[in-house]
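Quick one before lunch.
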Amino acid sequence: MTNATEYVQAIQEKLHQKDQGQEEFLQAIDEFMPTVMSFLDTHPEYIEKNILELLTEPERVIQFRVPWQDDEGNWRVNRGYRIQYNSAIGPYKGGLRFHPSVNLSILKFLAFEQIFKNSLTGLPIGGGKGGSDFDPKGKSDNEIMRFCQSFMLELSKHIGPSIDVPAGDIGVGAREIGYLFGEYKRLKKYDTGVLTGKPLDFWGSKIRTEATGYGLVYYVKHLLNEEKDSFNQKTVFVSGSGNVAIYAIEKVQELGGKVVTCSDSSGYIYDPEGIDVKLLKEVKEINRQRLTEYANQRPSAIYHAGESVWTLKEKADIALPCATQNEIDESLAEILVENGIKIVAEGANMPCTVKAVSVLHEAGVWYCPGKAANAGGVAVSALEMSQNVQRLTWEREQVDEQLDQIMETIYHTCRQTAAEYGDEKNLLLGANVAGFEKVAKAMAAESKKKKMKLSWKYCEHFVYLLEK
Ligand code: NDP
Ligand code: 2IT
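Model of the NDP complex:
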């Protein structure tokens, strides 16, 4: 029989051949594969059933055109996608991203990661992701609405509360979910559970807006607790200034830490007095302005145009990348180490490159992978699905408490699994193995182990039946 290393490497090579050019997808594969080898060594039954190769192939990839009219009456065309990656433990679940960089590779990496993230939540949700290369920046509300309606015209054919339940991601928040839901309702029927992250007025869950950022901070809080430490007096760097970043900043400050940075794709803010989260919300959420506006209104803030926040050379304790994939490469990870950072926890999906993760591990920095640390968003999405099925809305405190408990369980699962398979501090290994094991078990249960062998016992039984 093939050993686990050979088996995993053969799948990896095949994917590199078949999916040439899908850089982000192959990066996610290369990050994942080596971490499950020791697990597969002790579980040959999954090799026998070829579960890993089956799992790396998406169940379905849907691509469609999205025509829409701009305010001048011109017809524009974008590309829409939905990747229905794996439904072993529940309906496909994952966000929609609207950003000009969106392509098949990015959505496949996001959907692949989502499988394990959703599994770690302990809730019955499979993995999926979708979106479009549509750029919401500079578009009017009407243009965004018309785009969302056209996008849903096609997407509605493929989703449903027990089939596939999209939500938000970059460029998709409650406003877009509202337009998408309105169109779904017109096309199909009133089905609250078809999307999550809905506005509260039509059955969205309390705390869903805050969930990813809060959940990220809860994950780190439980790590700090176990190390007999806390957020109190900690200096924290955050990147991004969108949904995840804003609520991560809010929660860190509530727990006594000081966040001194945030960023967007045009530059970053260094605010040594601590980010004024009320002002940040006003600039980004209410007025939908750029971060320069925050700097204009806040005397203590220094704005660095065109630079990555991770080039900042100042002492800090914790880094929370909350913008996008590959924002921290090897050399930026080295700066983080020199700055004295002890914990890097990913609010974004795959913000650290594979080499950056190695730098952090080698320097003894706690690296908390996105698929575990940012699972709070999708976890509360799953709680929204539960509320929708029950036709109930739960109180803020109730959802927040459940979110905290889920993040605590995910953290301990990662740490215990990491210890079981070699290295207690390797939370990436812990997250990958624990997320994979549950899905692999479910997939294995769907198929018989081997063709039944014709043993003497069966032959005797057959003869007995013939004689009868
Ligand atoms: P938002 O659209 O609300 O905010 C995105 C933020 O990241 C903005 O500040 C944006 O700046 C910045 N950003 C986006 N792309 C780039 C880029 N190429 N370079 C530099 N900055 C960039 O998105 P979210 O906050 O929802 O998502 C942020 C990350 O968190 C993503 O990786 C997402 O996949 C992940 N995530 C989101 C969850 C959710 O529930 N929303 C759940 C789990 C993970 P600008 O405005 O200039 O584009
Ligand atoms: O990356 C993610 O987990 C999300 N964008 C949230 C997905 C969801 O279904 O809430």
